[in-house]
Each structure stands twice: as C-alpha cells, then as structure tokens.
Amino acid sequence: MQKGRDLAGFLHETAAADIAKLITSIAEGTKELSHAVRNLGAMGLGGSMDVTNVQGETVQKLDDHSNNVMMRVCKDSGTCAGYLSEENEDIVTLNTGGKYIVSIDPLDGSSNIDIAAPVGTIFSVLERISPVGSDVTREDFLQPGYKTVAAGYALYGSSTMLVFSTGAGTHIFALSTDDNGYYQTHLRMFIPGGGRIYSLNQGNLGKFESTAQQFVDWCIAHEKGPYSLRYIGSMVGDMHRTFIKGGVFLYPAAKGEKRGKLRLLYECIPMAFITEHAGGRAINGSQRILDIQPTELHERCAIIIGCKDLVSKYEEFAQAVAV
Ligand code: P6P
Q: Which domain holds residue 308?
C-alpha cells in the first residue's frame, strides 16, 4: 500500500514554522511513548510508584515516564515557553523565549495499561499572553479553548495513530513500524454522520444528570433500532472510534453538579478543538466547550462530544429539562 505524506513534509507545507517544530517535537515524544507502552516489562515501567499525584491518583511508573518524556521534547523544541501536565501540580517554564505553551495529559487512561487496552497522549497548544523572555503565568494557560492554536492526541492501540489539527482541518497519521515515521492516512477528515454508537460509563447512569438517562433511553428505543454501547474507559480510545465510526462520547455532570470528571484544559478542550475541525460538536451539556472560560489549571468539565446531530439531540433534551 502506498504510504501517505510524511508528517514533517505535511507540517512544513501547512503550519507556521514554530508550530511545525513544536508538533514535530511532540510527535517524536509520542514515538518514544509508543515504544514504552509496548515494552513495559523490558523497560521496568510496569506497576505503580509509591506516589500520589495532584489528582489524588496513584502514579503509574509509565505516567511519570510519559510526563518526563513529553516535558523534555517540549523543552527541546525551543518554541515551548511553558508546560502544564495532569501529573504536575503547577505550571513549568521551559523556554522563556518560546511563543507557545502546552497543556497535556501525557498518558491518558493509564489504568488500562495492565489490561493492554488503548491509552494515549492528549495535548493542546496556545500562544502565550505573557511577554516573550519572561516566565510563563497561569493566565497563559487559563485561556478559553477558542484561542487554541493546535491540539491533538496520540493513540497507543493496535497501531499508533496521531490525530491533530493546527486550525485547518483534522488529520490522521499512522506510525510505521518499518521506519518509525508518521504517514498520513486521513486529510481533513470528517466524523461520519449517522454513527449509531453511544459511549459512556453506563454503570454511572444513576449518578449522571437526568438528561443522560433521557438520551440513553432515546438511543436504545431509536425507531431504526437500538444504538450500540461501546466504552473502553480510555478517552483517547473512545474518541478515536468516534472519529472513525461516528457516534457520541459522553462524560456528563453528576446530578446537582456543574462539572464532570474529565479535565478541561488537557482533555476536553483539545478533543473539542479537533472534533469541531472534523465537523463535530462538543458541549458540557449547555455550553460549547471551546467557549468556557477556565478558572483553575486542573478544573474538571462535563463533556458530550462527537457527531453534530447526536450532540444536538442531547442538548435538546438538556434544554427541555432546563425550562
Ligand atoms: P470512568 C481515564 O482515567 C479517564 O481520565 C479517561 O481517559 C476516561 O474516558 C475516563 O477517565 C474513564 O472514567 O469513571 O468511566 O472509569
């Protein structure tokens, strides 16, 4: 099969030089993580550390390794001024002369590592607000998602895929094990309409806002027959299926809460950015994700994301409840 265009060539033709350099650096980091995920034992990266992160979660050795790799490649890019990670409590200045900042979940879904299920890296890029030459500030990171300059994810599944947008469509690249290069498989892809899949943790349905129950009931009782439930428990895996097969992924707010489980800055905003550039929608139940004004670095957010029609159907139920 003819290989698609390579990543470096594509970025050279389509992105500003500094962005191309930063995405290329991040892509190199994902290649290291792809190798690490597939060689845990040999690299002594299995199991957990005796450490709890800012999220109150036990840090897996691979979480820590992934964070170190992604921080290094962002620093080595020279264009990344600052770094916010799910694994770090606070922001980190990397290059005071850099123009951009990166918010990242270095290894999303790490609880799936032990069962060899898909995991991934999710990132988003903003232009800094603070003056070049200074340390980064929290305000650099607390910008609404519509300011996003680039975003994407790497999926470490049965194959390693890189899905990203620099603001002109969403593109998919596959990692070749022949030469460890990323080659394009989809250019300006669109989430297929009519995908009859819904994806949420059905076990939590009783805890989620009532709209979630209404929407699931609608999916199951659909006039064209019941939708399929698919849920991996790894956002990157569930979102990649949504991009390729259509459907909708949901992590709604709990009853009486405004926010959900997932993180706004380095899970919901990057996924919303690439979803909108692939013709889809992403809301928190009542508001467009990219319009939310962040107030805390690790704030959580509810998310309903995927095929435009299905997200709009959820929104219709939510608006009826709100009346
Ligand atoms: P639950 C993984 O821990 C994660 O952050 C996302 O990747 C995933 O979609 C979600 O949490 C799964 O959460 O509560 O269904 O186990």
A: 197-322
